Every structure is written in structure tokens, then in C-alpha cells.
């Protein structure tokens, strides 16, 4: 269980106070208006932002004293996920071994993982030679191969067109069934994940205003606000 | 639509115009003696001068890059009080008039300089001399290393925030951070920077003569100067200038080949903590670099403050007029530099998009190769070209901004071209799909990204022009007197102290410009 | 703001240009920077000449004598110069060869020059001897002759100008030739270990000396007068050398292309007159070509009086300079 309780962060012009529970193995989609604090929530879980007070724990382990590298967390950003001077397989391998000195077994793992995300034969391509969707697949492969049980996806598909987006969401869903991981993803278009997510959280003004099943959020009393905030964009 | 696409791109026109200007001035110089091109052979004297020029410029470049890059990395990793001011100070050494730099080196390392005094106070009573390689290298590293640090730091700041977070999340060691985040930036910047510094040192000659200690320590530029001003053998000057251009172009080609440019993933600046900030060993190394670099640069820079004593003696109508003239020429020169840089960079970008990398490289090369052209020869040649059409009294007004602008172009280009490439990578396809081209694209897509680098390069071009004493030596006059001109005039009248004060004013003006441009280029979007 | 400044400046330039064209006739005189600068004699001379000529005198400057000739060479027939003030003997042959100068037509008898003047193109307006200047509080026993300086391995350290780029630098090269003749190159090899450096110009060398980098600097016998008059310091002296000193004469010439030959000729005559000459000593820190009636200022009376003036003719310089330079390069680079 990912447990976030009254985690408070303040900036001169913005205050956030998060509380959220995500059971282990769930996929939680975070929706809400931009500027509402979705990304900040993910950055806090990953350790890029440190709350002044509150509790942050995963599987019973307190995350707050840990550095980003020590946390059981892997993250995929919307953009700039890959190092442009490394090949696809090197970028994936970073999740396994940042020194890039791999054993034969590890090398095989990398190849398998690229296959799993549908990029067989792309090992030697560099990010500049791949499409946006392919780059995000590489980033996702890197997150998975790290073996970290909590994966954060920060609007990973918002640059892609609708059909491709749908494919990617399905890929995520398929892979999480292969190996149990807990996923928290922010997303612009809730309908893409409505039937796959176990849970949906509506974040606005730096708070988790509501959390429940996708149906609760998208059809309950909050539905109008959620729709309005997303239509605003 | 068809007609439109046939119109030449302004960048192509600019490139051709620059090439024509340079070529034309060479031809004008070479054929001024009644059309017969001067015959010219490379004797042992020239070989010796060339060998020395290459060696001293090579050493100066290596040392400047080493110190500059070390400083940039240390400054990127550390935040401390006054860092802003340090960053602005980095931009000013390069624009110092050479004589100010020579006197600064002597004030610190000379026979009765601060170092000798300090050693003497410690009871050491030997003597040392810095004339020769030490003096030349100290001066060149002092002038160039801070500039290298500044440009490198700007590049490091452009690494996407996501990659820093990724590095933190993946737990990169300092070595891995260097390999995956810093080194790609350095590799992208080093070729261009090394080329710039090499050229500046290769051409440097007042410094080389003043601190070199003997006639064998001379650069090719001395021979060009001699041909132009003492022998009045313009044909020989043109040929020598051509040799210099060829060597410098060759050098840049080698550098470009050695450091192939990786694709850029520049993004907007973001203040992100670097994961290697906390490493204890790096803290010690950075402290050593900053203190060491500070100990090297600060005394030299501070010695310029000696001019403070006489600063009120020099403020008079002459000075104010010279200041206004300098400012006006600098503004015009900066306009020229930024305009040319913008049109060349957009031409280079067009070539990159259409996948003709070779041609793009030509545009990348052109600004740097301008540095290889001796300004004195270029001025003389251009003057001969425009002489039939322009009143010689007006020539200075036209040539000063033009030559100073051309001299600042390589620096402006370094700021502008990468950003223009960045906007292309980000919005190029979008703009193309919306059918945006030409000025519309420039206004809507490029301008928001270019605004700050343009301001920064404008300020740098102004600062460079402020300190320049190349062209004005030939075309100064009662009404066309700039600050450096005033400085040499005071020196010529034995007024060393007042010259120091004028030097300080030049450096202060450059500092203010650097500070403003630094502020502008660090401001949030 | 900057744009406004630029506009203001440009319009000022144009405005002054137009004003010149409409008002009194203008005499354009080319000279080197420090002559027309704040401390140079330019302002005084302008006032004094304008008081008599009902014209306007405009100084146009280049950095030094070499730049002046270079600029004339570039401008050729289109030059705006009516008169050029500030050439020197070593450039005289090249300047004459440009073909832009007209005979001066002035009376050059009774000059207070150490040599007889016979040139009909240029007139001398001031002169001085080259000399090594030293600080007598630091160097008690300066050499008494050039030979002593050159041949004493423990002699004082000197800073010189590069003869490839500087007028006094070339002057000293010629001085060495005058004293040593064909053995000059060996003398250079002997002197070389005590030469701190050869700077680009006089200013750098004098600056190096004042900053204490050398015991002596190549300058003029008149330099100490500056320190006495302007700074009230009498420790700076010029060393008197028994072989004689090389002579440095500064020249003025009127152009053939001038649109106002009358006015130009008037100025050439004015150059050798009292109002111009009396501005030389403490304005340009050189000896006047014609001693003013009131005599020389005090500080100039005490200056070193060389026993003999050493000089090559401009033609000799033009013919031999390349060979002298090559010899020097080989000897001093050893």
C-alpha cells in the first residue's frame, strides 16, 4: 500500500497538502486541471520534493528519509526521458546498472524487455531516430527493468495521438499483469484509462479532492467538475 | 507560392555578402599596386613565426579550456552568495583592452608585482621573470578561461530538468552524472569553444610582444601589421592574411571532426538540484577549483581597480563624448552582429531540416572563420572597396560598426544558433503542419525562445565593441573617439594613471552589460 | 534609450559635417592621437591658428605615424587631409613615394635642429633624441655609452620596442647600426639577455618601465621633462651616451590634393612660427624646431645634450630597413 497522509509542501505562491492511499498492485490514475498539483504529487513520491510534514510510506517502509535513488520508485516523464547520446538498449540498461557494465544475463534481460514493449530490433537506435511513442516505450522498459515495485508515470502519453495513446495504455496494463507493480500515473484524458485503472484520484488546488473507482469519479457528483477542469485545457 | 519559394533565404544572402566582403577586401588589398598581385614566398622567418603561433595558441587553448570547464562544472554544482556577480565577472575579462590585460598581469606577476611582494614579505628573496611562455599563457588563460566557463555553464544549464531527476532517481554516481549529463554538453560546446579560443590566441599580438620577451615570440599578425603599417606592402599583407585564414580554417575543421556534435536536447532552464551536489569528494574538489580559479583570476581582475584612484580626473567632456560614441558604435555593431547571426542561424537550420548537414556546417563555420581574418587587413581592404563610392570622412562611421559587428558575430552566433535549433526540434513539425514559414514562424515560434539569447548576445557584442581598438586606430578622429582610443591617447601623453582609469571604465561598462544580459538570460520564462 | 543615443550621436556627426560645409573654410589636419588629445598641443594650436586665419581647423587622428601613412595610402587621391602633422624621418621616404604631398614652400633656414634641413616636401616641427630613461633612485650608475650598455653582461635590464611595429623601436635599431655598423647583429646578441621584451609600441614599453619591469626604457631625452613639469618628480633621467644619440624628427607636409592650397600653405608657415613652436615643449614633450624667443622652459634646459646627432637619411632607411630587420631577427632570436 502506498500511503500518503497530510503531506504538506509550501512555496511562496502555492501550497499542497496530499492524502491518498493506493493498494499494492493497483493502477491509480491521477486527473485534474493543469497547475493543480498532479506532477508535484508524483515528484514528492519520487523524492524530488520533500514535504515539510506528513507521512509517506510504501509497503510499510517510510520513504521520507530516503533519497530518490534509494526509494523503490521508478519514474517516466512526459518528455526528455532518454539520454540522446545512448542507444535504446543502453537507455534501458541504465535502469538495471547505471554504470552500463552489464553481464551477459543482464544484456539478455534488456533485449527481452525491449521485445516486451514491442521494440524488437531497436537495440542500437538512438532516441533521435525513434518516434515519440517508441521513446516512451523505451522509458517504460527502463522503469520496469529496474525491478522497483512502484512506478510513476507523469503524463507519459500526452504527446501522442489518440490511437497510439490507447495502445500504450494497453501495453502498460498488459505488462503490469506480467509482473505485479503498483502504478501511479497522471493523465490528461481520463477516458483512456477509465476501464483499466483500479482507482482514480482527482487533484486540484494542491489537494486530492476525491478518490475512488473511475466510475465514482467520472460519473459521481464530482463528474461535472472533473469534466469542466479537463475541458478547460 | 512558387515565386515565394524561389526568393533567396536572407541567410544565404548574408552568407554570400560576408564571403563577398571578405574576398573583395582581400582582392582590393592584393591588387592595390596597379593590379599586379604581389608574389610571395614562405621563408624560414615565416615558418618560425607560424610554428610559434600554433604552439602558443594550442597551449593557451588547452589551458583555457581546462580551467574554464573545471570552473563551469564547479559553479554548476554549487550555489553560494554572490554567485550572480561571479557569473557576470566571467564575461568581462575577454573584452578587456589588451594593454589593460598586460598591465594586470604585470601588476600581479611582475618584477615588483603582488606575488613578488608577497613572496618577499615571506622572506623569499629570489627573482623570477614571467616574460616568455609563462607571461603569454597567464594573460591568454586569464582572458579566455572565464569566457569558456561562462559559455559552458550556459550549456550545462540547458540540460533538461527531467534528466537531472532521472539521474537522481537512478542513483547516478558523480562519474556517471558527468558521463551522461555533463560530457554530452561539453562535447557539443568544446569544438566551437576551442576554435574560438585558438583563433583569439593565434591572432593575439600586443600581448605576445609585450610579454613574450623576444622577437621570435611573435605571431603572424605581427607580420601582417608590419606589412600594413611599416612596409605599406598591402599585397604581402593580403597574402599573409590569407595564410592565417587557411590555418585557422584547417584548425576548425580538425576540431569539428574531432568533436562531432551530438544531437541537442536543449530545454528551458530549470533550477534542479544536481544529484552530485552532495558528494563529499566533489565538494572538496569544487572548493579547490573555485578557490584556485579565484586566486588566479581575482587578483588580475582586481588590479584593474587601481584605475579607481584617478577616475574623477578623467571624467570630462572628452570622456563623456567618447563614452557616447563608444555606446553608439557598440549599439550599431551589436545590431549588425545579432542580425547577421540570426539570418545565418536560420539558414543553417533550414539546411539541417532538409538534411544537408554539410551545408549547415558551412553556415556554422562562417562566423568563426571571420575571426581568422585580421581586422586591420579587413578594414583596409573594405576601405579600398568603398573608397570610390563613399566620402572617406564617412568611411569610419560605416566601417566601425560593420567591422566590430563582424568581429562579434561568432560570439552572437554561439548564443543564437543552438536555441534556434532547439525551437526547431520542439515546434518545427507543428509549425510546418500549420504552414508557418518565414517571418510568421520567427515571430510566433522562435521569438519567445530567442528573446533572451538575443538580448544576451546583443550585450556581449556591445561589450566586445566597447573594448575594441582595432579599427579605430586607423579611423579615429576628433569626432570619432571611443574609450579605448582615449585610453591610448592618454598613454601616449605619459598619463598612465588616467589610462588605467579609462581602462576601468571600459571594464565597468562591460561588466554592467554582462550583468544585465546575465539577468535577462536567467529570468524565468 | 540606446537607440535615442545612437540617433543623437549620428545626427550630431551629420550636423557638424553640414555646419562645416556652410561656415568658414575648414582646414583638415591629420595627426596622431596624443597630439590632438586632451594633453597634447592640438587644442592650443587650433585656437591660435583660428585666431588669425578666419577658418576652422579640424584635427583628424590616427593612432600613430605608421597609421597616418597607412591611412593616406588607403585614401590616396580622395584624402580629405589638407595638411599632415606627425610623420617621422623613417617613414618620410615611403610617405613621399605616395605622391600626395606638395612642396612646402616655407622658409626652413635658421632652425634650431642639430642638422641642416634641406627637404622641400616636409618641414620639421619638433625633434628629440632617442635615449634610455631610468629612475635615478633605483639605478645609481647608468651606463655612460651604448657600448657599455651592450657589452656589460651585468648591466641594467632594458625594455625596448619592436622595430617591426614601432617608431622608437626602429629608431633604436638604426642607432645600433650607426654605432656598431656591420657588427650590429653581434651587439644585439650580446644585449639580448638583458632585454626584458620588445613591445608593440612606445606606450607599452613605457608602462612596463613605470611598473618596474625594467631598469631602463627606450624613450626620448625629453621624457624626464614631463616628469619634472607635470608630476614634480625629478628622479627620472635620460642616460647620456658618449657615441651620440639617434635623432628623431617629426614632420609636417601639405597635400597636393588639397582644395585650399592657400590655407594649407598658411598653416605650413604657421608651423614654424612662434605660436605653434611655443606649444611644442610642454604640449608634445619634444624640442621645438625653432626655439621660441622666450627660450626653452626650465625643465628642458637641464636635459641631456648629446655630443653628436646620429641619423640615417630617409632613403637609406628605406633601402636597408629590411636587411637591418632580418639581421636583428636572426641575432635577437638566437
UniProtKB/TrEMBL annotation, chain A:
Record-linked InterPro entries: AAA+_ATPase, ABC_SmlMolc_Importer, ABC_transporter-like_ATP-bd, ABC_transporter-like_CS, P-loop_NTPase
Name of protein: Thiamine import ATP-binding protein ThiQ
Annotated signal peptide: none
SUPFAM superfamilies: P-loop containing nucleoside triphosphate hydrolases
Residue ranges of every copy of the ABC transporter domain listed in the record: 2-230
Keywords attached to this entry: ATP-binding, Cell inner membrane, Cell membrane, Membrane, Nucleotide-binding, Translocase, Transport
Gene Ontology MF, one: ATP binding
Name of the coding gene: thiQ
Pfam families according to UniProt: ABC_tran
Recorded family membership: Belongs to the ABC transporter superfamily.
The keyword Nucleotide-binding is assigned to this record: yes
UniProtKB/TrEMBL annotation, chain B:
InterPro entries xrefs: MetI-like (IPR000515), MetI-like_sf (IPR035906)
Pfam families (alphabetical): BPD_transp_1
GO biological process per UniProt: transmembrane transport
CDD domains: TM_PBP2 (cd06261)
Predominant localisation class: membrane
Transmembrane segments: 46-73, 85-109, 121-143, 190-211, 237-260, 281-302, 322-344, 365-386, 392-413, 454-478, 498-516
ABC transmembrane type-1 domain segment(s): 50-255, 323-517
KW Glycosyltransferase (keyword) present: no
UniProt topology in membrane: Multi-pass membrane protein
Keywords carried by this UniProt record: Cell membrane, Membrane, Transmembrane, Transmembrane helix, Transport
Subcellular location: Cell membrane
An annotated GO cellular component: plasma membrane
Gene3D superfamilies xrefs: MetI-like
Cell membrane in keyword set: yes
Assigned protein family: Belongs to the binding-protein-dependent transport system permease family.
Matches recorded under PANTHER family: MOLYBDENUM TRANSPORT SYSTEM PERMEASE PROTEIN MODB, THIAMINE TRANSPORT SYSTEM PERMEASE PROTEIN THIP
Name of the protein: Thiamine/thiamine pyrophosphate ABC transporter, permease protein
Species: Microvirga aerophila
UniProtKB/TrEMBL annotation, chain C:
Family classification: Belongs to the bacterial solute-binding protein 1 family.
Keywords from the UniProt entry: Periplasm, Signal, Transport
Gene Ontology MF: a single term: thiamine binding
Listed name of the protein: Thiamine-binding periplasmic protein
Pfam families listed in its UniProt record: SBP_bac_8 (PF13416)
GO annotation, biological process: thiamine transport; transmembrane transport
Signal peptide start and end residues: 1-21
Taxonomic lineage of the native organism: Bacteria, Pseudomonadati, Pseudomonadota, Alphaproteobacteria, Hyphomicrobiales
InterPro entries according to UniProt: SBP (IPR006059), SBP_1_CS (IPR006061), ThiB (IPR005967), ThiB-like (IPR005948)
Gene Ontology CC terms: outer membrane-bounded periplasmic space
Annotated Gene3D superfamilies: Periplasmic binding protein-like II
UniProt keyword Nuclease present: no
Gene expressing this chain: tbpA
